Amino acid sequence: MEKRPRKTPAEKARAQYTNYAVREPMELMDFLAAKMPDASRTKLKSLLSKRVVFVDNVITTQFNFPLQPGMKVQISKQKGKKEFNNRLLKIVYEDAYIIVVEKMQGLLSVNTERQKERTAYTILNEYVQRSGRQFRVYIVHRLDRDTSGLMMFAKDEKTQRTLRDNWHEIVTDRRYVAVVEGNMEKDYDTIVSWLTDKTLYVSSSKYDDGGSKSITHYRTIKRANGYSLVELDLETGRKNQIRVHMQDLGHPIVGDGRYGGENYSNPIGRMALHAFKLCFYHPVTGDLMEFETPYPADFKKLFLKK
């Protein structure tokens, strides 16, 4: 009797989900009812509440979520995920290998030697360890404490290594939105400088002074009320890169106490920087994963007519 060939990790990962393609516009509950005619509405609602239904890779619990042709609906075959509620952290995607989260401003990504408080890392570790003490998360990249937005963690060392060693090949799009002081002179441009970490701050030089070459592309979306809304695309991911590059241009980020200069303003009670887009090839399946969050509502308030 022939032995069945062992499944590859990618095949195992894909087998965790039942996949459906959306062909016509309809609400999520109606779509699930059509695909699972034998399931009661109570059963379908419980799938949503257990957070095992994904629309275009994002956990979706809203029964009347409007589906459009071309979207992908997945139902995880894993038993309901452990309940996760934290006002500073939201899980937007999770599988056996990675967790993608949206971090709120004010939360550290990971502990530092000086700061031992709760972080995104410690909160997620507690969450995955509810499934067994051997489980934990692994750091892949970071966001500054005062930056909100999308982050990814690995769930094993091999996946962490794959992501870290091949970051520039795996990550296809990583974008931020910021509100900066003043009216940006250009609609779009690229900033190049060499950054050096001085511990308390990062210094910038237009010339190679031994620092790390850093490249930021930007596009100005809106100008109003003495502010500019800017979308930023990182070609390199250095510490404080966007904050320093905006300071270099003479348009520091609103609410940035470190790089905002003596006259910095803080009209919304936070730094106006948000990582809104993260697209990458899954480190195990190779599938393209695309995540996007709305621009924060308080950023938009700064542009309302006075």
TrEMBL record:
The active site is at D144. Residues 98-247 form the Pseudouridine synthase RsuA/RluA-like domain. CDD domains: PseudoU_synth_RluA_like, S4. It catalyses: a uridine in RNA = a pseudouridine in RNA. PROSITE patterns: PSI_RLU, S4. The keyword Nuclease does not apply. It comes from the Bacteria. GO terms for molecular function: catalytic activity, acting on RNA; pseudouridine synthase activity; RNA binding. InterPro entries: PsdUridine_synth_cat_dom_sf, PsdUridine_synth_RluA-like_CS, PsdUridine_synth_RluC/D, PsdUridine_synth_RsuA/RluA, RluA_PseudoU_synthase. Keywords: Isomerase, RNA-binding. Its EC number is 5.4.99.-. Pfam families: PseudoU_synth_2. One of its GO terms (biological process) is enzyme-directed rRNA pseudouridine synthesis. Belongs to the pseudouridine synthase RluA family. Responsible for synthesis of pseudouridine from uracil. This is Pseudouridine synthase. The lineage of its organism: Bacteria, Pseudomonadati, Bacteroidota, Bacteroidia, Bacteroidales.
